[in-house]
Fold this protein.
Amino acid sequence: MHRKNTEKTEKNIVLTSSNFDQDPEYKELKKLYTSIKRKYKLTATDVISRLEEKEVLIPSCVFNEKLSVFESMVKYLKENLSLANREIAVLTFKSQKSIWQSYNSTKKKFPSLFEIKPSVCHIPVSILKEPFTILEAVVKYLKEDLKLSFHKIAVVLRRDDRTIWTVYDRVKRK
């Protein structure tokens, strides 16, 4: 049997530098890209790798005095990103039971939704795979990767400066 080749009915768009550079979406993307590079002091490679890696980031504005760091993360992932307990458990390397328990306690302590504002920094959830407590992993990331001072970390996490120093000292000893 002989089959005929069927032609595609879709029109192929010829990509030339002139029509690409004039595309309004490209212009908008370029502005955002430049803005993000400046705002977070990132290199081009950092921005592109973050776009491609599907990393879940927790904005620092979710941390408060009423909730622990882990409770804040769970509440943000559950309510703001609409993730299921199972998905949060996989992301945070914790059990579903601890996610459920943590979220239930947040509903009592902090029943309102987080108001998401521009944040000083964003914490990747992947740092929780390290063999540290949640607070230790977050403090280690902020101190070693983002090079923040103890005072700045305390402000970001809304904790006492001495607590941050003690937690980081524990991290160094481990």
User: Anything to note?
Assistant: Residues 54-173 form one domain. The longest strand covers residues 57-59. Residues 4-13 have pLDDT under 50 and may be disordered. The chain is about 55% helix and 5% strand.
